[in-house]
């Protein structure tokens, strides 16, 4: 029985998506050339991975001459949010609170990060209060 395909990104897929997000649109050869020398994959590996990304709905292609040109159709922020939702669902029972407690409980949060988190929480509280007022 074939394995069900994950909509999350592997490390190789994420590496190619980062290049596509940065470069816009490019061919497989462009992707191979843009990879750091110590992380460079073979042309066929990049082609296979980009086709997987296309089957997952992350990229699309059009033909220019004899080459296919690939473009990201999922924005980086959208992909990031999807991955976070996947982690929250898989490891934290869909509880953002449990995720935050785990992040804060590891003892590695700096004062700057805490200040930034407090500001984000204040913005979320203001947005929730605004939504509540609009409902009433």
TrEMBL record:
Keywords: DNA-binding, Transcription, Transcription regulation
Coiled coil: none
Pfam families hit by this protein: Penicillinase_R
Family indicated by similarity: Belongs to the BlaI transcriptional regulatory family.
Protein name from the UniProt record: BlaI/MecI/CopY family transcriptional regulator
């Amino acid at each position: 029985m074939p394995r069900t395909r994950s909509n999350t990104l592997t490390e190789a897929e994420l590496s190619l998506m980062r290049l596509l997000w940065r470069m816009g649109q490019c061919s497989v050869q462009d992707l191979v050339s843009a990879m750091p020398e110590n992380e460079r994959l073979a042309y066929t590996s990049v082609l296979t991975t980009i086709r997987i990304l296309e089957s997952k709905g992350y990229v699309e292609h059009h033909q220019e001459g004899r080459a296919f040109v690939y473009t990201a159709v999922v924005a980086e922020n959208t992909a990031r949010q999807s991955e976070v939702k996947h982690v929250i669902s898989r490891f934290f029972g869909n509880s953002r609170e449990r995720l935050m407690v785990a992040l804060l409980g590891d003892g590695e949060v700096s004062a700057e990060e805490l200040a930034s988190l407090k500001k984000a929480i204040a913005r979320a509280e203001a947005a929730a209060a605004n939504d509540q007022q609009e409902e009433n």
